Amino acid sequence: MRTDAGQVLHFSEDPGIRAFVPHVAATARQPEAYVWAVDHEQAPAYWFPRQCPRAMAWVRPGVTTGADRDRIIGAGCGTRVHAIEYAWLDAVRTTTLYAYRLPADRFRPFGEPCPHAWVATDPVEPLGPPEPVGDLIACHAAAGIQLRILDNLWPFWDQVTAGTVGFSGIRLRNAQPRLF
Question: What would the pLDDT profile of 74-87 be if each residue is shown by its tens digit?
Fold first, then answer.
């Protein structure tokens, strides 16, 4: 599930949202109220149940070393990997996720130095009814993103954050405790 031209997406397990109203998320690092959305490039980071912890890594052209690509992404495994824990696999298999298409002209990029989301400060109505995203594992396969299932995310996360790959971690507070 990706955006069309002039659109951004908001993913939710709730199929009944009629309007998105700016709010300060419980996990927010900023005090401003926003409506949050993502573009085509960021959409795969949200093909998960909302509370699912995930660690994601990707090759940064001209930055990621060949050694880090092979060690973290995997030799011959494409340019991106998403990792979750076995404890979340059933939820990934069974959660029904919906994508809301929103007008991109109501949003501005958010994040430095590279934007990782889009935000609006006024209420936003979807362009139409939400669309079921479908099989979340199949979404990854169709996009050529490997989905790695681990006992514990922390050893992988430590390697990712110490390397030259791009990375993002979402809901890591919900991951299993560190093993060491």
Answer: 988 899 999 999 99
